[in-house]
Amino acid sequence: MNMITFMLTTTLILTMALTSLNFCITQMSPDSEKLSPYECGFDPLGSARLPFSIRFFLVAILFLLFDLEIALLLPLPWAIQLKYPTTTLTWTSIIILLLTLGLIYEWTQGGLEWAE
Fold first, then answer.
1. How far is CA 33 from CA 22, 29, 37, 44, 93, in A?
2. Residue 88 in contact with residue 82, Cβ under 8 Å?
3. What is the pLDDT along the chain (116 residues), one digit of tens a residue?
4. Residue 98 covered by a domain
5. Does residue 101 belong to any structural domain of this protein?
6. Any one cellular component term from GO for this entry (predicted)?
């Protein structure tokens, strides 16, 4: 058995074992508090259908943008083995510079402020 088959088999067995263990151990007895739309400890006072603030979406998009930056920078340590590692370092520096300039722009425009 080669290593890939062993890893796939081990992963499949472990996944099935943990999933079946989860179904066996969990308690499926929902009460009125768990079935309510709010689980934060107080009764809802207003409508749950109020629109979100656009600032919430802006912060969420900025978080996703910087999260993707990490995914773009992940292969950087392996760039040392390339023929021209300075090319990868240049592109990485350009990406970081663009993201930093975008963050500075958002900061100066007040896009990261929750209250005005």
1. 22, 11, 8, 12, 51
2. yes
3. 677 788 888 889 989 999 999 888 887 777 776 666 665 555 556 666 667 677 777 778 888 887 887 777 777 777 777 787 778 778 878 888 888 898 889 889 887 776 65
4. yes
5. yes
6. NADH dehydrogenase complex
Length of the chain: 116
Domain extent at residue 87? 81-111
Distance between CA atoms of residues 111 and 107, nearest Å: 6
DSSP state at residue 38: -
Distance CA(30)–CA(39), nearest Å, equals 12
Tell me how far CA of residue 50 lies from CA of 56, 61, 62, in angstroms.
13, 20, 23
- Residue 90 covered by a domain: yes
Residue 50's contacts (CB-CB under 8 Å, 6 or more residues apart) are none
Sign of CA dihedral 56, 72, 76, 104: negative
Sign of the alpha-carbon dihedral angle for 34, 40, 42, 48: negative
Judge whether 86 lies within some domain: yes
Q: Are 95 and 72 in contact (CB under 8 A)?
A: yes
